[in-house]
Amino acid sequence: MRGQPGRSVTSRVLALLDAFSPASPALTLSELARRAGLPLSTVHRRAAELLAWGALERGVDGRYRIGLRLWEVGSLAPRGLGLREVALPVMEDLYEVTHENVQLAVRQDLELVFIERIAGRHAVPVLTRVGGRFALHATGVGLVLLAHAPVGVQERVLAAPLERYTDLTVTDPGRLRRCLAEVRRVGYAVSDRQVTLDALSVAAPIRAPEGVVAALSLVVAHDRADPVALAPLVQAAGRVLSRALGGAHR
Amino acid sequence: MRGQPGRSVTSRVLALLDAFSPASPALTLSELARRAGLPLSTVHRRAAELLAWGALERGVDGRYRIGLRLWEVGSLAPRGLGLREVALPVMEDLYEVTHENVQLAVRQDLELVFIERIAGRHAVPVLTRVGGRFALHATGVGLVLLAHAPVGVQERVLAAPLERYTDLTVTDPGRLRRCLAEVRRVGYAVSDRQVTLDALSVAAPIRAPEGVVAALSLVVAHDRADPVALAPLVQAAGRVLSRALGGAHR
DNA sequence: ACGGGGGCTTTCACTGAGTGGAAGCTGGGG
DNA sequence: CCCCAGCTTCCACTCAGTGAAAGCCCCCGT
């Protein structure tokens, strides 16, 4: 084989999947090639094979999209649909009691991924999307996940510049470090207007035998928020789920 | 390369993903190799690469599972999460009005795939799973999807033996053909105890510019069911979604 | 402590699946 | 009618991938 030796076929195929994103879920062959950094003919051949299997689909406009078969396989991810199936009833309970936004997220590397969300039609609008990513250092769920992440992960997050979303976003590594210690101590996290100036979130950990695997939060309008009152609710829900996952209480 | 010439690397990678199923979402390396029909060393190498990217994950038990990264990419499928995002509010309305099970499905080849489900805690238990498959000829959603599928697909389904789930399952191709014509004529489908003896479902099509792309249904206990009363509800919900997808009314 | 076995990991020399430049093909806009 | 951008096909070269076999590890029974 010629160009770019050292790059495996598998990595090229995965690069094609990487080319898709929430912002651009439909790509032409050329866009796909450009984003994946591969020659057109290579992409053409690999895409044809993914198409045949159902990993990609092609619309009437000729653009490639992620295919249903890949969605099906993805739905077998324990930390994806698996977690959602367990958590949804509890999240619905939490919604019924509060009528506020309920969010479920897990950590993937140095970011969080939203697994499920119940958005009350009358609750504060939140800009999160199921399947979407976000930084760990600003949201309630993020703080919980970061506080219980391996030290190596924490250090890597603290070492990188912490993006500022509002004036209240914690961007100082030292302060964030103290924040995380506090989250571990009290067993829940509060993010007060650290993402948007109208929202406050309260989050609690969900434990499995191997440790904290997910976080659950309520996102409410900051001016009608009472974190101290909400925390026990979210924590209780987290404990119910921890028990369901075998992550013992305590 | 040696063994099994004619098999592409990509097809081997996809065979690994195919090895996972709702019934066995966690596999050892050997199981993976056996199911994919590939030598152990080949699987070991390919799986390592999928692991590094996040398409697979490995639990404390050493078993491979579908990774979150694949779930993320899968969530970009327009017919998966995309459709769900649009449909969920309408499905919730339907649930609020009826407090019965609401199901959303699309066709994938000769089967249907459930995209979303709202299962009332007090509604009839249904055995469907989000991400799960089912035959087209028995359920309400299946009949709708089949009735509006390309003729080639219909013929292939009709040509194969139609599995019988209950005494009321339509297994005669001729009768099924008349059934489908009726579904197209009246604009909705009723499956009365054709899957289980306690349930009845009423389904309506969801149209996009390219035709019927999904189906929506209510599943109720057969003895408290009035299909004629439910049909307009489901059809109305279907039409709301069709309009949202640009699939004009009529 | 010891031996056996099942499962995972690594090695190595061979080879055909994959490559990408270039040439052909579309289709739609001016 | 021609041009251009994007897609598809072709072809000779070559390195990524292959799989049998050997090595390793850990658990279980004795």
From TrEMBL, chains A, B:
<keyword id="KW-0805">Transcription regulation</keyword>
<protein>
    <submittedName>
        <fullName>Transcriptional regulator, IclR family</fullName>
    </submittedName>
</protein>
<keyword id="KW-0804">Transcription</keyword>
<dbReference type="InterPro" id="IPR014757">
    <property type="entry name" value="Tscrpt_reg_IclR_C"/>
</dbReference>
<dbReference type="InterPro" id="IPR036390">
    <property type="entry name" value="WH_DNA-bd_sf"/>
</dbReference>
<dbReference type="GO" id="GO:0003677">
    <property type="term" value="F:DNA binding"/>
</dbReference>
<feature type="domain" description="HTH iclR-type">
    <location>
        <begin position="7"/>
        <end position="68"/>
    </location>
</feature>
<dbReference type="InterPro" id="IPR005471">
    <property type="entry name" value="Tscrpt_reg_IclR_N"/>
</dbReference>
<dbReference type="GO" id="GO:0003700">
    <property type="term" value="F:DNA-binding transcription factor activity"/>
</dbReference>
<keyword id="KW-0238">DNA-binding</keyword>
<feature type="domain" description="IclR-ED">
    <location>
        <begin position="69"/>
        <end position="247"/>
    </location>
</feature>
<dbReference type="Pfam" id="PF09339">
    <property type="entry name" value="HTH_IclR"/>
</dbReference>
<dbReference type="Pfam" id="PF01614">
    <property type="entry name" value="IclR_C"/>
</dbReference>
<dbReference type="InterPro" id="IPR036388">
    <property type="entry name" value="WH-like_DNA-bd_sf"/>
</dbReference>
<dbReference type="InterPro" id="IPR029016">
    <property type="entry name" value="GAF-like_dom_sf"/>
</dbReference>
<dbReference type="GO" id="GO:0045892">
    <property type="term" value="P:negative regulation of DNA-templated transcription"/>
</dbReference>
<dbReference type="InterPro" id="IPR050707">
    <property type="entry name" value="HTH_MetabolicPath_Reg"/>
</dbReference>
